[in-house]
Amino acid sequence: MLLRRLSRCVLVTSAATVAALTALPAAAHADTGPWHVAPPPFSSPDGTGRDELTITVADAGNGLDGTSELRCDPAGGTHRDPGAACATLDRITADGTDPFAPVPAGAQCTMLYSGPATAHITGTWHGRPVDASYKLSNGCETARWHRLEPVLPATAP
């Protein structure tokens, strides 16, 4: 008899729970969309302008400080290695990645200070204006710098 009462109680409670859940309004579930929304792809060259960048490096030491010009297609300018720099930028942008994008807001970065070096890149790449700053203040910024080597000079770690 006790078992029959318990099973009836469970059945009534389960039915009430299902009824309550199905009675919720549609707004009770908000569709938050995809977990990650990719930025629009970094376009390929459109033939309307040249790829020209001005790269200014400060506090890198070892004769790496200064301003250089980088032109691509064909590679040239006053950059130390324009061919390798243009190839690096082409490789990064081949899948639509913006090589000059800042570290995403809210990124969790190690507190790894890699030195006082800073860089600033301005100009045009693949028909888009560029105005990007680089520093070695934490792990994310250091990794971002290293991804652009040899556009930016190689630095320790």
From TrEMBL:
Keywords: Disulfide bond, Protease inhibitor, Secreted, Serine protease inhibitor, Signal. Residues 1-30 form the signal peptide. GO terms for cellular component: extracellular region. Gene3D superfamilies: Subtilisin inhibitor-like (3.30.350.10). Residues 65-138 form the Subtilisin inhibitor domain. It is found in: Secreted. The keyword Zinc does not apply. Its main location: secreted. GO terms for molecular function: serine-type endopeptidase inhibitor activity. Pfam families: SSI (PF00720). SUPFAM superfamilies: Subtilisin inhibitor. Belongs to the protease inhibitor I16 (SSI) family. This is SSI family serine proteinase inhibitor. The lineage of its organism: Bacteria, Bacillati, Actinomycetota, Actinomycetes, Kitasatosporales.
